[in-house]
Amino acid sequence: MATNSTSAPAAKGVADTERRRPRLSPDTVSGYGFLAPFLIVYLVFLVYPLFRGFYLSLHQWDLLAGPLGWTGLQNYQDLLTDPTFWTALGNTFYFVVLTVPLTTVLALVLALALSKPTRTNAVFRAIFFSSSIVSVTVVTLIWQMVLSPSRGILAQALGTVGIPPLDWLNDQHLAMLALVIATVWWSLGLPLMLFSAGLQQIPGDIYEAARLDNASGWRTFRYITWPALHRTTVLVVLIEIILHFQVFGQPFLMTKGGPAGSTRSLVQYIYESGFRDWHLGYASTGAMVLFVVMLIASLAQLHFSRKED
Amino acid sequence: MTDLKLQRVIKRYGDDQVVHGVDLDIREREFVVFVGPSGCGKSTLLRMIAGLESISDGDVHIGDTRVNDVPPGQRGVSMVFQNYALYPHMTVRENMSFGLRNIGTPENEIRQRVDEAAAILRIEPLLERRPRDMSGGQRQRVAIGRAIVRQPKVFLFDEPLSNLDAKLRVQMRIELARLHRQLEATMIYVTHDQVEAMTLADRMVVLRDGRIEQAGAPVDLYESPCNQFVAGFLGSPSMNFLPASVTDHDGNGVWVDLAAGGRLHVPRDASRVSRGDSVTVGLRPELVSPADDGVLSGSLDVVEHLGDQTLLYVRLGDDSTVIARDEGSSTHAAGDTVRLAFSDDACHLFDGDGRACPRLPHAAATA
Lengths: 309, 367
What we know:
The structure holds two protein chains of two kinds.
Chain A: H1 2-20, H2 26-57, E1 59-62, E2 66-70, H3 74-80, H4 83-113, H5 119-130, H6 136-147, H7 153-160, H8 175-187, H9 189-200, H10 204-212, H11 217-228, H12 230-245, H13 249-254, H14 266-276, H15 280-308
Antiparallel strand pairs in A: 1-2
Helix pairs in contact in A: 2-15, 3-15, 4-8, 4-9, 4-12, 4-14, 5-9, 6-8, 9-12, 12-15, 14-15
Chain B: E1 4-13, E2 16-26, E3 31-35, H1 42-50, E4 57-62, E5 65-66, E6 77-80, H2 92-102, H3 107-121, H4 136-149, E7 154-158, H5 166-183, E8 186-191, H6 194-200, E9 203-208, E10 211-216, H7 218-223, H8 228-233, E11 240-250, E12 253-258, E13 263-266, E14 278-283, E15 289-290, E16 296-305, E17 309-316, E18 321-327, E19 337-341, E20 348-350, H9 361-366
Parallel strand pairs in B: 3-8, 3-9, 6-7, 7-8
Antiparallel strand pairs in B: 1-2, 1-4, 4-5, 9-10, 11-12, 11-14, 12-13, 14-20, 15-19, 16-17, 16-19, 17-18
Helix pairs in contact in B: 2-3, 2-4, 3-4
């Protein structure tokens, strides 16, 4: 009897601590179950390649022959002293600096213009979005035709006002601009949709209050619409930065990186190192640098937008 | 003097007409409440006065100006919205200043007017906060403050209390009444809550399907509704309606047979009805009470004890239900058979079209 009475509270204490300790409850198990498909894909296709890429970048590694030995930071040193790399990095920056603001502003202006819920506006939004679903191959084909100095619609249009045809894709100064124009046209859809969605989130009665408050169109935009779209803008710019730092298809298909390397992007440089020159380790080094550049750019954007908030 | 005139005001959406020629004069400093069920056009009418909805036909005058084509901001009206409609990215002070800044008011005057309005509404401690950091009641005060600083000729309220909880609603209602006295401003208030309408209004305008059913002082509307709709809309619980048929006239009113059984004398001017006509007798629940010699008899369906009073839901012979009021300590229980009594004077009479038969002049005099 005496042992019974002493062991009972002790057992209760054990049960209590067990209950307090986080354990694999059925909820936790099913929670991880639901997460598993994403986590597996994320780990196998994103996290593992990232570390694998870093590992490769520390080796001399041939595409066919495989590892040829540890080289430490030699690849990085080679990369940072290669003028072609710096040109490609500069080109990529130039492309991003032109494309991101242009796409963002244009998408915002279009979203504002098409914000009234009419059928015509819905049709226009669909039209503007439709370019996004076209593959890069088709986009470049379309723009090669549009920009062609002999048959292109642009040359013909400019010709009617007496401007001689420009050889966009073969001009060192114009080629990048041509790529930017094609890219903005291609990638406008998603930001337009995001801004349209953002605009729809703003309650209509706030605009009515502003009308009663005598707010002009500009002041309404400046003090009501723009602050309300802040988060959307941050998202749009972030997506655009990440997307456009990886530009490859447009220059590769339209200009092959020329003329004179003036449109060679960082991803093309990486591609050429890996799949033309078979230097997989060196290509991985370029990819690592691109990753760091994009990370810094994204963090900077987030940092400034938080400050503004 | 700023009075507000609506003349044959019509609103159409495409082929769909939702406001059918409303005529109304609102005097300066009057507190007018538009009340009616959902979809009756009361908010639309208010928004037409504000300029947020175009006027399809007819005229709106504020003071001496026809404002049909005047933009909302220049009509001299302020509006308080149901969802407050505060600018989310501005502080309270900025919210209240925005309208004044837009018209180039000097900063020191803005500051002074905002401070004054904040004092009236006791929201000084909130001035540097943002809307998201405030409760619903505080937001509504700010919204009212934003309306006050513009010193409008007319205040418009679009169901401003409907998002607040019951207790806060009562509190804000009292405050709005105080504010009206203090500002001596013309106010137009839209609500579907008849208690708000009854307590706040100098004059109530009951709307149905885009038409004014009746306008007048709350007590007049309550005691002398012009038709069955107004009678049923005002009062909680609402008026009992008993189908009946006319059996006889005399100089003092009309005799009717109730469908539920029983014969009544109703002292109303029944010149519009004749023998055999179907009519409806209306009885306010608070004027019907259980009594052994009552005219009506039925079985008690539901008993609601409200503390100070008890509501009895009595099912009559023709399966209609009559609500009666008993004292708080009522001992009646569901299933009991009860008889209900009321005075002849308590009876309203509505003809076959639902129009009220007026009180007889001498009956009104003796009442």
